[in-house]
Amino acid sequence: MSEATLFPPIGMLAELTHRCPLQCPYCSNPVELLKGNRELDTQTWAQLFRQAADLGVLQVHLSGGEPTVRRDLEELVDGLAMRGVYSNLITAGVNITEDRIRALAEAGLDHVQLSIQGARPATTALISHMHSAYEQKLDTARRVRAAGLPLTINAPIHRHNIEEVPEFIELALSLGAERLEIANVQYSGWALVNRDALMPSREAVEKQMEIVAAAQERLRGIMNIDFVTPDYFATYPKPCMGGWARDAFMVAPDGTVLPCHAAQTIRTLTFERFGERTLREIWTDSPGFNAFRGTDWMQEPCRSCDRREIDWGGCRCQAMAIAGDAAATDPACIKSPIHARMGMLVADAQAAAKTDKGTEFIYRRIAQVREPV
Ligand code: SF4
Ligand code: FES
Fold first, then answer.
1. Is 335 in the pocket of ligand 1 (CB under 6 A)?
2. What's the pLDDT band for 366 if we cut at 50, 70, 90?
3. Of the residues 27, 178, 224, 267, which has the fewest C-beta atoms closer than 10 A?
């Protein structure tokens, strides 16, 4: 694809670190987590953000791991604010003082997205592997609102908390959130390793969809509820990342620039690090970014499908993980020749749920390297 046909990126996800005090088994980070000594320093992140702004990026999502473990976060936020770039802090909300939140707000932070693992303290402790996480998260939510920052609650949904969806809705309302994201877990990274332990049943998913639809109607104008659909139960896939290298990208803690968080599971592709080339060069000219841009790479049935510029063939990493071919139609699509495999994987997970394999998590830990199943 030539540079002339490219659009500038709008959004960027900056994984500032893989360090995190929590150990959620659904984490989207790669299984091979990077230690702190591999992270870009303050100056390099600041330079990268300046180049992102020059390239057209309007929103930067500061993520991790847990981004607040970076002591330079205020400085990085300040740099973004100076360039007029909207900054969103994606946080687990533990070990954060009131002063820290105030300092981030003063530095120009625009928005906070706080993840909560369960609407009940025991569920949050089970999933996060931290006993006091629930209380700390609620304190953080209140401090965010007290600092005048808009708040989104992110609720990653799986078998162990899908029954708590009505409670999540009430909790988000009570915390003054403007938005609640009911996000069914995407099975990549650590979630793929833990798929059998996390996958909900079809009945639970269907009930959840009814509850969310009714709440969206009831709370219109009061609180927005976004629903991230569960791929394994879908008819058509989501346009993952809005389409490969179409209007957003992410940067790993060591500066590797990627089209999405799981792109490195496609071993046939190589990705470049910021510093080896400029951000503009990587966005416009990297073979890894160009591999699945647009529609020219598509095979049938995507190639002749009238949805090809709606969902862009779905998720390349899910095609890799399940079909073994990153250029295949996402198996979440009903037109995929192996769509039935999704149902079989759900059935396998339900069978595993009755055994130890289905109840034991492999918690996210640095250096606990396992190959995805
Ligand atoms: Fe989307 Fe491809 Fe399925 Fe068509 S065939 S709906 S383009 S994934
Ligand atoms: Fe890589 Fe969907 S996670 S394209």
1. yes
2. confident
3. 267
pTM, 2 dp = 0.94
- In the chain, where the domains are located: 11-233, 240-333
Q: How far, in Å, is the centroid of ligand 2 from the Cα of 13? A: 13
Q: Is the peptide bond before 150 cis (omega within 30 degrees of 0)?
A: no
Provide mean pLDDT across the span 254-266.
97
| Atom 8 in ligand 1: residue holding the nearest Cα | 313
* DSSP helix/strand/coil, 274: strand
- Ligand 2 centroid to Cα of residue 6, in Å, is 19
CATH match for 11-233 among 3.20.20.70, 1.10.287.70, 3.10.129.10, 3.30.70.1350: 3.20.20.70
| 112-156 residue pLDDT tens | 999 999 999 999 999 999 999 999 999 999 999 999 999 999 999
* Cβ pair 26, 119 in contact under 8 A: no
The annotation status of 305 as a binding-site residue, yes or no, is no
CA–CA distance, 154 with 237 (Å, rounded to integer): 21
Say whether 240 counts as a known binding-site residue.
no
Angstrom distance (rounded) from CA 284 to CA 280:
6
d(CA 171, CA 367): 35
Ligand 1 pocket mutation, candidates 311, 315, 317, criterion most atoms within 8 A of CB:
311
**24 is annotated as contributing to ligand binding:** yes
| DSSP label at residue 298 | P
Give yes or no for a contact between 100 and 68, defined as CB atoms under 8 angstroms apart: yes
Q: Which residues contact 91 (CB under 8 A, 6 or more apart)?
A: 66, 67, 68, 112, 113, 114, 115, 140
> How would you classify the pairing of strands 11-15 and 59-63?
parallel
C-alpha separations of 368 from 28, 127, 190, 363 in Å? 15, 17, 11, 9
Tell the residue nearest (CA) to atom 3 of ligand 1.
333
